[in-house]
Write a structure and sequence with these properties.
Strand content: under 5%
Structural class: mainly alpha
Distance between the termini: 63 Å
Helix content: 40-55%
Length: 133
Amino acid sequence: MKKMIAVLSAAVLCCGALTAPVFAEEEPAKEYMLGDIDEDGEVTVTDAQLVAQAYVTALVGKPIKLTEEQVARSHVLGLEEEGCLYLTDGQAILMYSVNRLAGYTDEELKDFFANFGSSLSAKDLNGAIYSHE
């Protein structure tokens, strides 16, 4: 009986050594929409909160926790100055998410960000200079 278990164990180990390694394919990089700061696939109130929190953090001179990619997606109004965050972008994200909750479709909101900030300039936005941790 002991010999049989030993032989079976040896056979299992040999089979394991003969198997080809399996390599996982790299997943394609996900692309998130403008305003989707938390990368959950939707623009929500949480995204607006993240922008507002990062803005206040930068305003008091502390490093923000957002990545450069997240900061780039926060510039929903298209008025971007190198190294700045804008609270107005957070407000636009909030308005967008509230309108979605009110029943507007994605198609109806397609040009929302472009129209929201069309009359603003970077000077009107009072950007906060940020740094990273």
